[in-house]
Amino acid sequence: MKVIKMNNFDKYFLVEECYFDVRVQDFAELIAKFSQIFITKGYVNVDWAQSMLTREKNYPTGLDMGAHCIAIPHTYSEFVQTSLIVPVVLQQKIPFVHMGSQENIIDVEVIFFLLIKEPHQQVDVLAKILNLCSQKNFITELKTAKTQTTMYETVLRNLNNGGI
Which end of the chain is less crowded, N or C, counting CB atoms within 10 A of the terminal residue's CB? Predict the structure, then answer.
């Protein structure tokens, strides 16, 4: 039996909230799809989707990590009811605006939704996700995972390897 060491950051991940082979055409469809899931599960309120669309337009979250492009969409804590980080691997890349830019478009296939209820934790969690994503082979391993359990174990193993 494989033993996975837990750390304090692990609390943000749930095996049932790891998604792979998600098919969407663009960010608006991605948000529509996940707002239904998150509202049904009580993770966010009904205004979360509109807040995400507005925030991403004003403060884009696409990041070019070298071999892979990721995005870390998030919004204000008032729209979140449960703190989670939700990794999503898309079936095909969708365009995102690069963070710190308003016109540099990158094609993203790995998303980390940040659902952070406590506003003071948002910057720390964002920094830890960036550290996790900068680990060699993490995104490649995540993209090749074909079960929720494998995705979850990949996240936990890399969290522990990175000393987060």
Answer: N
